[in-house]
Write a structure and sequence with these properties.
Layout (H helix, E strand, L loop, with lengths): L1 H7 L3 H22 L8 E11 L16 E10 L5 E7 L4 H12 L7 E4 L3 H11 L4 E4 L11 H13 L14 H17 L10 H4 L9 H10 L24
Parallel strand pairs: 1-4, 4-5
Antiparallel strand pairs: 1-2, 2-3
């Protein structure tokens, strides 16, 4: 953010404000348009570790009103189209967090998916909570050679870390607040799904999944930001003061 403020010659507060607006606009678009995904999908689930403000061992120093410590980003990736269907940023890596991910995923798919995840027991509980007996979940330990694996979502974890420096390990670019961390993830997710051409598919994941036939760019995201921004009002007299026109001298 400081590099951007220096390059653009604007205040860092301006960059922070536009990041917040971009995150809000990107999440609203994702929530509305990444739905009604047709077909029987093979979905891979995993979690990406990061942290906000400080690591767990010193997180007690943070202000009590803000989030601090480890943050787990739960992701659900369609193996065929490489579409990031759902993602959730949670403080705990437990069954409740996995259930929130599964519930969001279920609202976006037309059919019950075939799920693949690692050996985390929270996924089995979450799948049973959301789909009941219809749940089709395959779990495996890392390094196992089976027909079902999490290779695509594991590679996508690397994409997140390379495209979003806030997720890079051992760096000073970590997020200082949870709100900025979420906004950066929302911006990444929309750009990945709708603007970034996948090297293998030669189209964007959203195009491959049948959600759109248009290749978007960053200018399109800027228009999304403008669509949720209230234009500034024309300045006028202050409230509580009586408007007095200027006196006109007659010659």
């Amino acid at each position: 953010m400081r590099s951007t403020s220096r390059v653009c010659d604007v205040s860092i507060n301006t960059v922070a404000r536009y990041l917040d607006l971009a995150g809000k606009a990107c999440w609203l678009y994702h929530d509305v348009h990444v739905r009604g995904i047709k077909g029987k999908r093979d979905v891979q689930c995993d979690e990406v570790w990061s942290y906000v403000y400080a690591k767990d061992r010193v997180a007690d120093w943070a202000d009590p009103w803000d989030v601090a410590g480890s943050i787990w980003t739960f992701t659900a990736l369609d193996a065929a189209s490489k579409l990031l269907i759902s993602y959730m940023l949670r403080q705990r890596r437990d069954a409740r967090s996995a259930t929130v991910l599964m519930e969001d995923m279920a609202s976006r798919l037309n059919k019950t998916p075939r799920l693949t995840a690692d050996s985390l027991g929270a996924y089995r509980i979450a799948a049973a909570n959301v789909w009941g007996s219809k749940a089709k979940l395959s779990q495996l330990r890392k390094g196992e050679d089976t027909d079902h694996n999490t290779a695509y979502v594991e590679r996508h974890n690397l994409t997140i870390r390379m495209a979003n420096r806030r997720f890079t390990r051992k760096t000073n670019a970590f997020s200082k607040t949870m709100a900025r961390h979420e906004a950066a993830m929302h911006l990444f997710a929309l750009h990945y799904n709708f603007c970034r051409i996948h090297q293998t598919l030669r189209v964007t994941p959203a195009m491959e999944a049948g959600l759109t036939d248009t290749l978007y760019d960053m200018g399109w995201i800027v228009h999304l930001i403008e669509s949720i921004t209230v234009p500034p009002k024309k300045p006028g007299p202050k409230l509580g003061t009586r408007y007095r026109p200027r006196s006109v001298r007659i010659q």
